[in-house]
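Researcher: Go.
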Amino acid sequence: MISSKITGTGSYIPSLKVENNTFLNSEFLNNDGSNFSADNNVIIEKFKDITGIEERRYAKPEINTSDMAFFAAEKAITDANINPEELDYIILAHNFGDLKKDQIQGDALPSLASRVKHKLDIKNPNCVAYDILFGCPGWVEGVIQAQAFIKAGIAKKCLVVGAETLSRIVDKHDRDSMIYSDGAGACIVEQTLEDDSGFISHATQTFANDEAYFLHFGKSYNLNETDNTQYIKMYGRKIYEFAITNVPAAMKTALDKSGYGINDVKKIFIHQANEKMDEAIVKRFYRLFKEKVPEAIMPMSIHKLGNSSVATVPTLLDLVLKGNIENQTVAKGDVVILASVGAGMNINAIVYKI
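Model: Structure:
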């Protein structure tokens, strides 16, 4: 049976470190433009307690989303030890295109996937490059598509990248702006006939009724701003309640399809959106099986890297595989879950055997 597995990973972590104290002099406002009753010290401390974020990374002004995607892609290609001319697909997940610093218009023409193919200097016209807009779960969904192409017999090697510069699309008056960061992660997905490792099962859902606009574009909370600039906005409480209810169910669906049991799962690589939310998701997931959460089951990078949307899961996976997160390792034969949730509202999960 034709199957597929990840043969190489890579990530790009921007060099600009932005600590929480950077926001001490920010003018945070409520969505009606009014001031918070608490001062910024209290706001930032509460923010850290909930999200777990101590610092985040921003891209240098001259670095765009497609640049970071290229850097991560190069590393994944090197790690997999393949010739990029052999790639059948380049699938690039993002949400806002290339965003130049201090400009309000995203640029996705040509597609970011085509830009990465250009930067990689791939001459093969049969290497198909396209973008995927799927909210934060975009990279996970790109991986699902790559393995589907391989299973269908129309591809043997695919590059899947997730990259974003969220720092350039945030409202500085919105305290949620402290969540977002920049980064890129990538992997090579290849056909395999060798063993039972690789992709086992997956689940994907889109909720687009009341949930469709939980994440959306909106104007600044500073009502004195008169231009038409739009920023990323979210209904945090609604997203939290949605995620802790629906993500565990999707993860269970994927695991049930796989034929493996809950005690076979060694790691859960989950979208780095909010530490408390991720902990609640995993706790509810195990509760569905009437089990307690094992220690160290969930690697986390949000404390130092923040929420880089589509880049969080591939970056986290790369860091663990390369031994760059303390006390977090995986071994051949380990069953792991990759899961994400985000704008759409979209949810997905993959069961994968290392």
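Model: The chain is about 30% helix and 25% strand.
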